[in-house]
């Protein structure tokens, strides 16, 4: 089986299902770690409805869907923050598809999408409990930086210059 990655409309059934799976996983991980419970179903529905992903639609964003053997298996989004900076978000691969190289392919495709939007750098944030994500970003050449936002769930911030230049990482 092979991976294919292509832009997808934010409101497509595949994109909606992947957003639900992503949000459920990261939310459950947070609540299990901090409160010993899973996400309340009503809260999940409110948050999904409140964050449909419009910022990932053209002309200033892209949502990419990865398919493995033709089936939706993962997603990644990019959105321009300014003329030269894009944000990487919603990087997700279904648990059953992990370890097959899809995440690195998705991030690479997101970097290309950011370049096509005119970005020279890509930034992102993540949490401490998402250790697999932090490892992936480091392996792909992202460097940890000082905070670039005040998101209450962000604990680690990363940056990658898309033109090949490297920034200094935190010690």
What is the chain-wise order of helices and strands? EHHEEEHEHEE
The major β-sheet equals: 7 strands, mixed
Q: What distance separates the N and C termini?
A: 41 Å
Assign the CATH class.
Alpha Beta
Q: Note the beta-strand portion.
A: 25-35%
The CATH architecture would be 3-Layer(aba) Sandwich
| Average residue pLDDT | 92
How many whole angstroms does the radius of gyration measure? 16 Å
Fraction of helical residues: 25-40%
The number of domains is: 1
The total strand number stands at 7
**Class inferred from helices and paired strands:** alpha+beta
Give the strand order, joined by hyphens, for the main sheet: 1-2-3-4-5-7-6
Uncertain spans, ≥5 residues at pLDDT below 50?
A: 165-171
Overall 3D form: globular
Please count the helical segments. Answer: 4
Which fold does the CATH topology refer to?
A: Aminopeptidase
């Amino acid at each position: 089986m092979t991976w294919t990655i292509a832009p997808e409309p934010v409101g497509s059934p595949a994109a909606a299902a992947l957003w639900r799976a992503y949000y459920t996983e990261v939310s459950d991980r947070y609540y299990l770690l901090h409160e010993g419970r899973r996400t309340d179903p009503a809260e999940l529905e409110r948050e999904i409805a409140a964050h449909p992903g419009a910022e990932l639609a053209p002309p200033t964003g892209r949502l990419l869907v990865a398919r493995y053997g033709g089936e939706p298996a993962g997603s990644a989004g990019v959105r321009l923050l300014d003329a030269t900076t894009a944000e990487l978000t919603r990087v997700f691969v279904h648990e059953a598809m992990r370890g097959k190289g899809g995440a690195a392919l998705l991030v690479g495709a997101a970097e290309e999408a950011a370049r096509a939007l005119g970005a020279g750098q890509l930034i992102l944030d993540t949490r401490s409990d998402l250790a697999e994500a932090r490892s992936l970003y480091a392996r792909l050449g992202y460097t940890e930086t000082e905070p670039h936002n005040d998101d209450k769930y962000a604990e680690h911030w990363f940056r990658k210059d898309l033109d090949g230049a490297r920034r200094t990482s935190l010690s």
